[in-house]
Design goal:
Elements: H1 6-18, E1 28-31, H2 35-47, E2 51-53, E3 56-61, E4 64-73, E5 78-80, H3 88-110, E6 122-126, H4 134-144, E7 150-157, H5 160-169, E8 172-177, H6 197-203
Parallel strand pairs: 1-2, 1-6, 6-7, 7-8
Antiparallel strand pairs: 3-4, 4-5
Length: 210
């Protein structure tokens, strides 16, 4: 399956999740910025429930930032990869840099406010796709610490083995595509590019600054 864009994949996910609506308790959609916001917007619109962001940052290896050696969430949850120890002396510095970026994204996407309580609620955690799954798994663990009733992972595409790992960590895992051959999330989208922060802020219902 090829998605036209993130709105399209979000619409398809929303159709699946809508079937669960009567089983959920005070649901809230938490999207991983940036791309996950477009997906989450479609789900929240279809479900008639709030949309917010849960911020998690990949900890990239020195000199190779695309290679994840860990992930850190806005709640302070850290998930280390199997390669983390090889970069021991750099790890804390990288974490501190990404925690600063978390504070910046919190300001941009939540106006600096703390995440509203999810205790006892059904949390629909979404992104536009998952590759290694490290940041998404960190997000799951971070959200679980806030005592939700349940966590539902909603992801358009993820490699089969990663989808199975994620499903084992949540109450329900909803995936549209779980290919065994996987290069990158972008290969499943006809249009896959980030937009200006103002666009994502508008989806989150945040007024223009100034």
């Amino acid at each position: 399956m090829s998605f036209r864009d993130r709105f399209h994949s979000g619409q398809l996910l929303a159709e699946r999740i809508l079937k669960l609506k009567d089983e959920l308790t005070d649901p809230i959609v938490l999207a991983l910025p940036r791309g996950g916001i477009e997906v989450g917007y479609q789900i929240s619109q279809k479900m008639g429930c709030p949309l917010s962001v849960f911020i998690v940052r990949k900890l990239g290896a020195p000199g190779n930032p695309e290679f994840a050696i860990g992930a850190v969430t806005e709640t302070g949850k850290v998930l280390e990869s199997e390669y983390c120890k090889e970069y021991g002396k750099f790890f804390q510095k990288i974490r501190e840099e990404e925690e600063k970026r978390i504070l910046h994204q919190k300001q941009v996407f939540r106006q600096g406010k703390e995440l509203e309580s999810v205790e006892g609620r059904s949390v629909i955690l979404c992104d536009d796709g998952v590759a290694t799954g490290l940041t998404f798994k960190a997000a799951i663990l971070g959200v679980k610490e806030m005592s939700p009733r349940e966590v539902i992972a909603a992801v358009p595409v993820a490699p089969y083995d990663v989808a199975m790992e994620i499903s084992s960590l949540v109450d329900r895992g909803i995936f549209l595509e779980t290919p065994t051959f996987f290069v990158a999330v972008s290969q499943f989208y006809q249009s896959f590019y980030d937009k200006e922060d103002s666009f994502y802020r508008s989806l989150l219902g945040i007024e223009k600054e100034g």
